[in-house]
Amino acid sequence: MIWSGLFAIIAILLLLRQPVILVLAVATAYIHVFIAEGELQFLAQDIWFAIDREVLLSIPMFMLAGAVMTRGTIARRLIRVMAALTAPIPGGLGVAAILSCAAFAAISGSSIVTMLAIGSIMYPALIQSGYPKSFALGATMAGGTLGIIIPPSIPMILYGVMTEVSITDLFAAGLGPGILMTLLMATYSAIVCRNITGGKWDGREVAASLRDGVLALLMPVILLGGIYSGYFTPTESAAVALIYSIVVEIVFYRELKLGDYYKVFEDTTKLLGTLLMLLAIAGSLNTILDYEGVPKAMAAYITETVQSPVMFMVAVNILLVAVGCIMDIGSAILILAPLLLPIAVANGYDPIHFGIIMIVNLEIGYLTPPVGLNLWVAMVAFKVDFASVIRAAIPFILLMVAGLLVVIAVPELTFLFVKGR
User: Fold this and answer.
1) How far is Cα 366 from Cα 110, in angstroms, rounded to an integer?
2) DSSP secondary structure of 141-184
3) Segment 65-106, tens digit of pLDDT
4) How far apart are CA 74 and CA 340, in angstroms?
5) How many angstroms separate the first and last alpha carbons of the chain?
6) What burial class does residue 251 get, using C-beta atoms within 10 Å of its C-beta: 0-12 exposed, 13-18 middle, 19+ buried?
7) Cα separation of 45 and 357, whole Å?
8) Is the peptide bond before 370 cis (omega within 30 degrees of 0)?
9) pLDDT per residue as tens digits for the range 374-402
């Protein structure tokens, strides 16, 4: 009867279209008081413990760094380099769009930031160069999703925090699948747009673009090199990214004004307020569910019910794709990762490999209706209707599903850059 009351409250809140954070907060409070027979003060304690972690400092710093680079010129300079290098290739500007997203993903950690930073420049450039509007939309949206699989990645940080898996290892594990997704999208772009002739090789433009963008190109090298060499932690790498982006924009490029920095901090604070509150409540919920033995009970039940690791993975993929259609990736990771990981381990999956599988799955959710964030952001940013963005995303969704199958079937790809594995 008590559980029925919980489900009824959740259903009513969802029918009233209340935000996920409110539904999660009410459900957590209900479980604390009526199911765990505790007190609301325990909820406050759990919330504090959930956010009192040093690694969480990396999230606001990566968000701030991404915002600075988006409003500054780092993204534009990266695009110029990629466009110069791919100019001789038929469909080269489409390939350049994907490669630019991949390069920016290596310094932003966010899908939306990557899509807006590159798409605001590349989308109109593709249209003006004769590329189909549907392709330009799809490439921009799909390229943006690389922001969460190519490290550093905010969803990887969330997964590591909620499951106590090494974030450094998760970053390293994301490189192989990230390169795979980039190659799939770039190859598709070159094939589909092969009839659109590119420019000629211009050594002077290549040299000029490299001089113009050398500081932007150095940033992913510094970040990833520092993390994998052990010179600094993921949290310290976020601080390096933030300081580096601000110094480069202020001292060298000098195109950001003081008012721009105010807007950067304002926008980041709004996003961060929602994310940290969600993280705190989800952490409290996971604490009480673990105390009540829910994850272990679920693991035991599914292990007995599902007869093989293959069937388990099929069920998990169906679940994650469905969740990705109706929930943002941060909420999905915070809620599902601590519940699904013990079951995955019981079925023989490595925690790091499973984390990458989960993130790639939810990466596809950025392009799936009705809640695919990249779809909605693209619709507003590029002033197109929702049906158009869905049609544009379909070919790239199929590509990403193919990439997901490779990531699942070939674990070695995940551990290609992980030390000691």
Assistant:
1) 11
2) HHHHHGGGTSSS-HHHHHHHHHHT--HHHHHHHHHHHHHHHHHH
3) 877 877 778 888 888 899 898 888 888 899 999 999 998 888
4) 38
5) 48
6) exposed
7) 32
8) yes
9) 787 788 778 888 888 889 999 999 999 99
